[in-house]
Amino acid sequence: MPNILSCFKWVIDEAYIKTGPSLKLDMNFVDYKISDYDKNAIEEGVLLQEKFGGSVAVITVGKPEDTKGLKDALSRGPEKAYFVNDTSFSDLEPSQTASLMAEAIHDRIPFDIILCGEGSSDLYAQQVGPRLAEKLDIPCICYASKIQVQDNQVLVERKVDDGLEVVQAPMPVLITVSPDINIPRIPGLKDTLGASKKPVIEIAGSELNAVSARLETIETRAASLERSGRKFSGDQAGIKALVEALLKEGAI
Amino acid sequence: MAGVWILAENLEQSIELLTIGLQLAGEIGTDLAAISWQPETADDLIAHGVDEVILLPPLTAGQALEAYIPAIVERAQIDQPEVFLIASTLKGKELAARIASRLDAGLGSECQTLCWDAGRKSLVIERLVYGGTGVQKVCCLGRPQMATIPPRTFEPAPCLTGRDGRITQLNVSPFSPVTVLEKKAREHQTRDITKARVVVCVGRGMEKPEDLEKARELAGLIGGEVGCTRPISEEMHWMPEDTCIGLSGKTIKADLYIGLGVSGQIQHLTGIRDTRIICIVNKDENAPIFAAADYGIVGDLYQVLPGLIEEIKQVKA
């Protein structure tokens, strides 16, 4: 029966980011959330355990104060959480996150299936999953839309550019899941209360080797999506005016 | 040895990668090599500017492209390219991340712009973050400097006459523990919306699947295709997934986009930001999409759409 480990990232909720003057990103009033795509990874871990038995845990790398994310993740069904944390673990780039997570998992955490979201809601680099598989030297299957466990193998339907492939790989294995693989549950009050009683195992940054960045962020600014936004009314006259405008633009 | 590499997964996107690859090779003062497993495309690659085609042997049955990772990594360790560019197809993104990990290299994912910074002696990359709210400017610290590039970011490189290039055959045995048991082609219910000149996009404001007919009628009138927002394909399953527009779906570069009942989540807006004209119909005057649109009608979709179809029919007549 598989030991399942779902990875998640605690990220800034982009809905709260405001654009300040001269395209500066205003992060003063942001809230945080579990990266949307990682909710699918957590849900799939719990669903696989319900179907095939074994255990299911979550793991995240972050700053010591990111404990709200652990509670949120645990309220979604996993039995326990591994919290790889250090005050220096902010704004990590994908190769650092993958290396830290790999070292924390290796020798410490039993696993047969590691699940990741297809990317994170903040950086959406889609690197941590595949990089983690390489660091752990295990098979990697990306963009899964269906997972089954059979003997010591996984049977996975994965998205490829021209359709789907059914693939097989021996465990231990890392799988990144597509957002369409499941619909993540919305935790109820009971789940939230129960989450605080579940164990959190801390792995301190001091226990791990320091990893240097492979990407340097020079700057981050707001993306300007603003357009002229000419509004018309919904009546006949408005429709007529819109069609005229589109004709004038040579668009229709 | 070539200092700029591209991964030639498919010819169309490889020729786009060559536009930026050749520009970078010129600025760095080096050759360009393409990693390929399709000997039939070697002449085309050379004609479009490749100096060396590094050719991998065909895969055995049940193997997929990831089987090439060890051979590509081994060759990269010998040739030590300065820059390695990969198209950000699903497979390309996976291979790029895994190769970068093995080479301990930095990788800029889904780059919107790339340029060579002579002062830093490095590639400077711009990419979208926070669902498209932000633009992150990064540079790679390790070597090779790797980047994945979305399709149609660059124009195809021109075909040149009388070019010579060499072909280097690698003698390796590709293998991955992941075996392919079955392949299912995607059901193409529509034409490729990423190539459509006009895209009519339906969102949550559409109440039932039968109403899609009206959107199709509008699209048919103006030579367009119908796309949708994520809830329509993923939650309602009214439209096939390859018509879903947004950050984790398709990115369109159409001449005209008409959004019907689309609220304008940032992830969706990111998929349409390169469209020339954005036009929308939404009854909620405060929907975020109005700020990102060129033209908008504030009104009930079910009244506006028939009126719009009639009006276009009249002006076309």
Task: Put the structure in a nutshell.
By secondary structure, chain A is of the alpha/beta class.
Q: What's the layout of helices and strands?
A:
The complex is a heterodimer of chains A (252) and B (317).
Chain A: E1 3-7, E2 10-12, E3 18-19, E4 25-26, E5 32-34, H1 36-52, E6 55-62, H2 67-74, E7 80-85, H3 94-105, E8 113-117, H4 128-136, E9 140-150, E10 153-160, E11 163-170, E12 173-177, H5 189-195, E13 200-204, E14 215-222, E15 230-233, H6 236-248
Parallel strand pairs in A: 1-6, 1-8, 6-7, 7-13, 8-12, 9-12
Antiparallel strand pairs in A: 2-5, 3-4, 9-10, 10-11
Helix pairs in contact in A: 2-5, 3-4
Chain B: E1 4-7, H1 11-28, E2 32-36, H2 42-47, E3 52-55, H3 69-79, E4 83-87, H4 90-103, E5 107-108, E6 111-117, E7 122-129, E8 134-140, E9 145-149, E10 166-169, E11 179-185, E12 198-202, H5 212-221, E13 224-228, H6 230-235, E14 256-260, H7 266-272, E15 277-282, E16 295-298, H8 301-316
Parallel strand pairs in B: 1-2, 1-4, 2-3, 3-10, 4-9, 5-9, 12-13, 12-14, 14-15, 15-16
Antiparallel strand pairs in B: 6-7, 7-8
Helix pairs in contact in B: 3-4, 5-8
Q: How would you characterize this protein structure?
A:
The complex is a heterodimer of chains A (about 250) and B (about 325). With about 250 residues, chain A is an alpha/beta fold. Chain A is built from 6 helices and 15 strands. Chain A has helices at about 35-50, 65-75, 95-105, 130-135, 190-195, 235-250; strands at about 5, 10, 20, 25, 30-35, 55-60, 80-85, 115, 140-150, 155-160, 165-170, 175, 200-205, 215-220, 230-235. A 9-stranded mixed sheet of chain A has the order 11-10-9-12-8-1-6-7-13, with helices on both faces. Chain A has a two-stranded antiparallel sheet with strand order 2-5. A two-stranded antiparallel ribbon of chain A has the order 3-4. In chain A, α3 crosses α4. The N and C termini of chain A lie far apart (about 60 Å). The mean pLDDT of chain A is about 95. Chain B has about 325 residues and is α/β, with parallel strands linked by helices. Helix content of chain B is about 30%, strand content about 25%. In chain B, strands 5-9-4-1-2-3-10 form a 7-stranded parallel sheet, sandwiched between helices. Chain B has a 5-stranded parallel sheet with strand order 13-12-14-15-16. In chain B, β1 (about 5), α1 (about 10-30) and β2 (about 30-35) form a beta-alpha-beta unit. In chain B, α3 crosses α4 (about 90-105). Chains A and B meet through α3, α4, β9, β10 and β11 of A and α4, β5, β7, β8 and β11 of B.
